[in-house]
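From: lab user (bench 3)
To: helpdesk
Subject: output format question, protein + adenosine-5'-triphosphate

Hello, I'm new to running complex predictions and I'm not sure whether the block I got back is the full result or only part of it. Here's what I submitted:
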Amino acid sequence: MAYLSLKDINKIYPNGFHAVHDFNLEIEKGEFIVFVGPSGCGKSTTLRMIAGLEDISKGDFLIDGVRANEKGPRDRGIAMVFQSYALYPQMTVYDNLAFGLTLQGIDEDIIEKKVKNVAGILGLTDYLDRLPKAISGGQRQRVAVGRAIIRKVGIFLMDEPLSNLDAKQRVTMRSEITDIHNKTGATTIYVTHDQTEAMTMADRIVVMKEGYIQQVGTPYDLYFNPVNVFVAGFIGEPPMNFVRATLKKGKITIGKNTLDLSEKLGDKASKYEGKEIVFGFRPEAIVLGKAENSLSIKASVELTELLGDNTNVYVDIQGEKSILKVNPHDTPEMDSDIEFSIPFESVYLFDGETEKRI
Ligand code: ATP
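Helpdesk reply: Thanks, we reran it on our side. This is the complete output you should expect:
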């Protein structure tokens, strides 16, 4: 039996707005789940329903097989870290960490033990006497995480906890949160709009759009087996390239390129004959020049961006824009004409109407 079960969960706000539709998910004990999707897709609403901060309009939420819809936030065994984590500015790091336990009237000796243990996990041991203003943003964020994990709860919810940090601090905190998760073993649900955070931290990712789950899967699944255009375009940076074209006799034409997709489509070729399909390929899946078992495309180079480990090449395939990721030593000249190849297994085809993977 799953540890957390969300069955046909819906959220309709009092103003009538239907923010979450038929959300179904089973979460195992100790899993690190990430909800990801663009702003307004219903991630925070779902998290807040799990936390008990928002009523569930329809559906069942079970913790360890027991219905928890009506349980208050304090009775769910949940700790939460929000995007804006106000620390008490006049209290030291130690007191900020200890505050919740002190309120509960726990023994000073036990509190000290717990604070020191959590400070050790979070690398805050040397900062316990400092005030929040005298530590870095990343350290403050760790105190906020510490306040949540000190309570030894089974479920840990985080809503965009890294959004106030700069890019470098975010990278550090990402691995720290994964590390904390491994040490505490708490079941974690983490909300972000950043696909890199989702890919690097999650055991499983839930991709959402406009209140609906699009796909649930491991980072590997979502990257290599996206079920639709939305997931394919959301996971991966730079995003997957898409070109719309009509299938004629098993082929599509992009500018002056005619690509034979009959082998890739197999017996589905007849179903899509005369219909629009979406042709997709990842920027990093191409090779420059011609290659075997691939589709070759001629394009002109509009712009190149050297990033160090690779170069992003912006190309025009006679009217269609795409990005290619190439080895910096192979960076083509600006305005030159090039040919590149996409291995058959890296070609993604989607139904032009439903946008579902073919
Ligand atoms: P973000 O990343 O911007 O926080 P999100 O995916 O977490 O977005 P939610 O905050 O869950 O999105 O909001 C989902 C939708 O519900 C949005 O369209 C939002 O405007 C709407 N919404 C949120 N709170 C309320 C409310 N109290 N009343 C009515 N609509 C709301």
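A quick orientation on your result: Residues 13, 15, 17, 19, 37, 39-45, 193 surround adenosine-5'-triphosphate (CB under 6 Å). Let us know if anything else is unclear.
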